[in-house]
Amino acid sequence: MPITIIIGAQWGDEGKGRVVDWLAASADIVARYAGGDNAGHTVALDGEVYKLHLVPSGILHSDVVSVMGNGMVINPVNLVREIKALRNLGLSITPERLVISARAHIITPGHIALDKAKEMSLGDAKIGTTLRGIGPAYLDKTGRAGIRTGDMLLDVEEFADRLVTGIEATNTELGRQGIGTLDAREAAGEYLEAAAFLKPFIKDVSIFLDQALKAGKNVVCEGAQGTMLDVDHGSYPFVTSSSPTAGGALTGLGVGPLFVEKVLGVAKAFSTRVGGGPMPTELDGELAQRLRGSGANFWDEFGTTTGRPRRCGWLDVAMLRYAASVNGLSEIMLTKLDILSGFDELKLATAYEIDGVRHEYPPVTNEELERAKPVYESLPGWREEISGCRHFSDLPKAAQAYVSRVSELCDVPINSVSVGPERDQLVLRGA
Ligand code: IMP
Predict the structure, then answer these.
(1) How many CB atoms lie within 10 A of CB 343?
(2) Over the chain, what is the mean pLDDT?
(3) How do residues 316-334 score in pLDDT, each as one tens digit?
(4) 366 CB contacts (<8 Å, ≥6 apart)?
(5) What residue spans define the domains of the chain?
(6) Theoretical Cys-Cys bridge with 313: which of 282, 284, 375, 378, CB 3.0 to 4.6 Å?
């Protein structure tokens, strides 16, 4: 299996980290290809909970090389903090174990200030970003004004000049909006220290991966965010600024499509979303509360990066069908099925009705998606606690029927289901 791409099939937070961690056991390389520290990938292992924002989830396997691709936007200061925190937990992170693309873009303090300023100026229409500077960093990248990780390999003064020039450009924009500006030299200070730390990790990732693939190595591409947050294919403009979909893995790492063997979509057994924008199956009241959890457990529906409560609703299969199409999914893994134990009735949105017309896929515009009424199909729930199940046949019949119906409705096999946060809490079909 040369390349397996793992993508989020919904609005992010599907549990991709734990799936990547599971597949990393039989991989040589785990490579992240999009986004930045807006992501929060949680992996539970032997009683320890690892919250990863930038470092790929493969880092938890000592014989796996983790790669951060050119499609990412990286805050070097936060990356150094994350590496040091992981080292404090006993993980070995060396340039042999972590490779950072020289072509990724750097998030500066100016980008963070601009992200906040833009959100404030939008008022009620705000996107609800993670305020990590993601959008402004990608804007500079496509506007050909960005600073790249490879620039950290330059002479210190040269890198400092680029940073200061970048932050001063932000200051012009902040000034125009009447917002306080940054002291560019001071803001650049921490970045110079981070650059010295990260230098040995920076390489040409595309060549590294090509050589590894030609030598027969197995690569797992770790998606961040989700299909509906994709800048092209998501619910624009309520999206992130990168390409979390399967195509993004190729451009975000610089690898060719012929190496790809499998595209695995990760979907939660119900829907969640953080931030603004339409969500046709959103619930409120007691049902939403039950899906969300109280916040007492790390797997409850509160943002790993921002702590914000996530919006919760029934599983939107029309959206999953769309994700299957956009990403060319070979398979879906359904996560958090255990959370659905105890409901009398479960609902699946199999399509939408918009102005009296049935739609099998999400419409293109948000205006239509706002008006979309889910067409629900009801399924019986189950009472049993299922977190101890390991084989499909161990699941209650109603849980088996739920999984099978989702698979049938989006015409994609579901061969694995997670029933708890730990590495081994997986139900494998056919196992
Ligand atoms: P940004 O990526 O911080 O610009 O945020 C844009 C939108 O994507 C907002 O609605 C965020 O809540 C959402 N978002 C970004 N990263 C994640 C994630 O990892 N999980 C879920 N939502 C995310």
Answers:
(1) 18
(2) 95
(3) 999 999 999 999 999 999 9
(4) 235, 236, 237, 238, 277, 278
(5) 105-198, 268-428
(6) 282
Span from the CA of 56 to the centroid of ligand 1 (angstroms): 17
Q: Is the preceding omega at residue 237 within 30 degrees of 0, hence cis?
A: yes
Global confidence as pTM: 0.96
Token pair listed for 294: 């109280």
Ligand 1 pocket, residue 240 CB under 6 Å: yes
pLDDT at residue 1, rounded to an integer: 55
Q: 109: Cβ below 6 Å to ligand 1? A: no
Q: What is the pLDDT of residue 239?
A: 97
pLDDT in tens, 48-101: 888 899 999 999 999 999 999 999 999 999 999 999 999 999 999 999 999 999
Q: Report domain 268-428's class.
A: alpha beta
Q: Which fold has domain 105-198?
A: Adenylosuccinate Synthetase, subunit A; domain 2 (1.10.300)
**Atom 15 of ligand 1: nearest residue by CA position:** 38
Ligand 1 contact via 328 beta carbon (within 6 Å): no
Question: Is 41 among the residues known to form the active site?
Answer: yes
Q: What angle do CA 424, 430, 431 make, to 5 degrees?
A: 40
Nearest partner of 315 among 402, 414, 429, judged by Cα: 402
Dist CA 267 CA 10 (whole Å)? 6
Task: Give the span between the Cα atoms of 331 and 314, in whole angstroms.
Answer: 21
Identify the pLDDT of residue 431: 60
- Tens digits of residue pLDDT in 381-406: 999 999 999 999 999 999 999 999 99
Atom of ligand 1 nearest to the CA of 274: 12
Pocket test for ligand 1, best of 32, 37, 111, 130 (most atoms within 8 A of CB): 130
Query: Residue 233 catalytic?
Result: no
Residue with tokens 């993004």: 248
Q: Phi first, then psi: give them for residue 41, nearest 5 degrees.
A: -105, 120
Question: How confident is the model at residue 42, as a pLDDT?
Answer: 86
**Amino acid, single-letter form, for residue 316:** D
Contact (CB, 8 A) for 272 and 10: yes
Determine the distance separating the centroid of ligand 1 and the alpha carbon of 210, expressed in angstroms. 30
State pLDDT tens for residues 356-365: 999 999 999 9
Render 11-78 in DSSP notation, one character per residue: SS-SSHHHHHHHHHTT-SEEEE-SB-TT--EEEEETTEEEEESSS-GGGGSTT-EEEE-TTBEE-HHH
